[in-house]
Amino acid sequence: MTAEIKWWAKGRMLENCNCRLVCRCHISYHQPADHDRCIGAFAIVVGEGTYGEVDLAGVRAFFSVNTPQQMLEGDWTAALILDEAANAEQRRAMETIFSGAA
Questions:
Q1: Which of 27, 77, 89, 100 is deepest in the core (most CB within 10 A)?
Q2: What pLDDT digit, counting tens, does each position of 20-46 carry?
């Protein structure tokens, strides 16, 4: 059994989705989206944070999702694009976080 790696991050995020006003699902995955599928995009700049011992400060990412109306059901299609300035450890950390494995 492996130990869970702790992570945290603070920074800026711009989000957009096909809901009428705000991304309700992002506030709580228990809330249903306004439509049959949630189609959203998130632009992220990590100001400070870590994944275990990996410094995440300065990492820039774009995350796009297509999920069921109820996100907790799973069956997501997602794409994560990381800035080429991110090193290999930062890439692995962000991929782990955004895949839901962290």
A1: 89
A2: 877 777 777 778 888 889 899 999 999
37-50 burial string, b = 16+ CB within 10 Å, else e?
ebebebebebeebb
Q: Are the CB atoms for 93 and 54 separated by under 8 Å?
A: yes
Which residues are within 8 A (CB) of 53 and not within 5 positions of it... i.e. 6 or more apart?
Answer: none
Cite the DSSP H helix spans in the chain. Answer: 24-27, 88-99
CA 97 to chain centre: 7
Query: What's the whole-model pTM score?
Result: 0.84
